[in-house]
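Weekly structure sync, notes
Attendees: PL (lead), two postdocs, one rotation student
Agenda item 3: pending single-chain targets
PL asked that the sequence for the first pending target be pasted directly into the notes so everyone works from the same version. It is reproduced below exactly as submitted, 271 residues in total.
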Amino acid sequence: MPIVKVNGIELNYEEYGTGEPLVLIGGYIADHTSWAHLVPLFSKKYRTIVMDNRGVGQTVIPEGPFTIEDMANDVVGLMDILGIDKAHMVGVSMGGRIAQAIALNHPGKVKRLVLCSTAARANDRSKFALRLLAEEYAKGNISYEFHMLMLQTWTLSDRLFANPEMLKTRFAQTAALRSRPTPANMVRQLDSGQNFDTRARLGEIKAPTLIIHGSDDILFPISCGKELASGIPGAKLFTLEGGAHGAYLEMADKLMPEVMSFLAGVDAKSG
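Predicted structure, written out during the meeting:
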């Protein structure tokens, strides 16, 4: 796993496949392995790049706060090191906010943009729930395992909770894929988006954009996806019916055809 020095940090990344560059940007406390189920599909057609954002995995950062914009600059810095002038980007949750920051502040770097289960700003309910879990873990009041189980109640669908065996399998997969960030870094990732708000600037995003959102997302409700779609010129909204915040994990069979068609330049469906 290569590590490069970018913007004063040591950034861990991996790349797979050949073709047009595609950057996958993960969400809160998700390291690069959160894309493990989709990388084999994307890399059949694209040079697919995944990374550990600041605060997770093997990326090494100094002490102190950082912002969504810092993480966006990390992605751009990595692209420059890899000789990539422009790439398709897919961002999930916090990764979708990082992708928005790239599209706004480095518009020449983005060819096509996919924003999944994300928002122009985090709502107060999601901020409260995520911070409560992180702080209770940091205080030693709950275990990391319990923290992750509770986080799943906010991110997985009712369909999964109705099937104990499927739920058990998903919990095991999630635990196996992700590294364990420190409590301090979990809080720093949460703080990075505390004041992030692109609502007033969505009209500046020029890259062709596909919004993918689960109809039953309780962490970032479907209204967040609709807000992005109405604010970004020409953006298309594809709703995953019955999908929760982790729809990219649960509903890859429905998500991937839509994303691959969009990246290829075929108009995505709206709805």
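Discussion points:
- The chain has eleven helices and eight strands.
- The beta strands are 3-6, 9-16, 21-25, 47-51, 87-92, 110-116, 209-214, 236-240.
Action: rotation student to compare against the earlier draft before next sync.
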